[in-house]
Design brief:
Elements (H helix, E strand, L loop, with lengths): L1 H22 L3 E3 L12 E2 L6 E7 L5 E8 L4 E9 L14 E5 L5 E4 L5 E5 L4 E12 L3 E8 L4 E7 L24 H7 L35 H33 L7
């Protein structure tokens, strides 16, 4: 029985090694309910790594959240967009802008000023980093507010410490059952549409510009999720196969040895 418990624990630890990296960077999805920093999700520790996903449909829409830092900690933040249309067809000035307000009331804006594409293997999606910033944080609550004048999706990553299961206040995690209902894949595949003054949404063609001078120089990309998900599934099944094989070999050896004779 003790050997079964040991092998079971080893199997569990191996599975955790494969599963933890996939879930460690918990996504948070900002919606119209999070239209200000004070109504958005609240992070008790801004050094823990989180990624905020959302979209803005018009210049009247905002998305926000708050995070707490201790004096001397590092405020580390990046602004990204999906490497897909319509975002990659927009000028820098039309992409969402992140306003950061410190506890002392001072603030600064993080607007798009760079274009660095990278592939995220854990989610199987490709992004473009348009700004990144870091500084020694003030002690207290920091406000983060996103706004823009063109419909676009965005990602804001904050923190550097990977710690799965960190609680987030003022936020309920979406339920996901299988890849078909994965909120992240739904967010990536559903491109936003611009709203006009009457509230009607414009098409992607009406949402773009003929001025190509500042457009992000990246062709339309699609999520590369199939290979990534297949690889993760293969690793999990391989681990289970190793565990089953270990149990089988152990049982066979035990059977060959026969019952142990006791002294006396």
């Amino acid at each position: 029985m003790r050997r079964f418990l040991v092998l079971g624990c080893l199997t569990f630890l191996l599975l955790c090694q494969f599963a933890a990296p996939v879930s460690a960077h918990d996504p948070i999805f900002l919606t119209s309910e999070h239209d200000s920093a004070k109504t958005g999700p609240f992070l008790p520790d801004g050094t823990i790594s989180f990624a905020f996903y959302g979209d803005i449909g018009s210049e009247k829409e905002n998305r926000g959240f708050q995070a707490v830092f201790q004096a001397g900690q590092t405020l580390q933040i990046s602004v990204l967009i999906p490497a897909a249309l319509p975002e990659t067809n927009l000028r820098f000035e039309d992409l969402p802008v992140l306003q950061v307000t410190r506890p002392d009331g001072t603030s600064f804006d993080l607007a798009a000023e760079m274009s660095v594409e990278f592939y995220e293997p854990y989610t199987g999606t490709t992004y473009v980093r348009v700004n990144e910033f870091r500084e020694i944080a003030q002690e207290g609550i920091h406000d983060f507010l996103l706004n823009g004048n063109i419909a676009a999706r965005f990602v804001v990553s904050i923190g550097a410490i990977e710690r799965f299961g960190t609680p987030v206040e003022r936020y309920a995690r979406p339920f996901s059952l299988g890849s078909g209902s994965d909120p992240l894949r739904q967010w990536f595949s559903n491109a936003p549409e611009q709203k006009n003054e009457t509230g009607e949404r414009l098409s992607v063609n009406e949402n773009t510009t003929n001025d190509q001078s500042e457009l992000i120089e990246i062709e339309e990309a699609v999520p590369e999720s199939d290979d990534s998900e297949s690889t993760r599934n293969l690793l999990v099944f391989a681990t289970l196969g190793i565990a089953v094989t270990s149990f089988t070999v152990w049982g066979a050896i035990r059977g060959l040895r026969g019952p142990q004779k006791t002294a006396g």
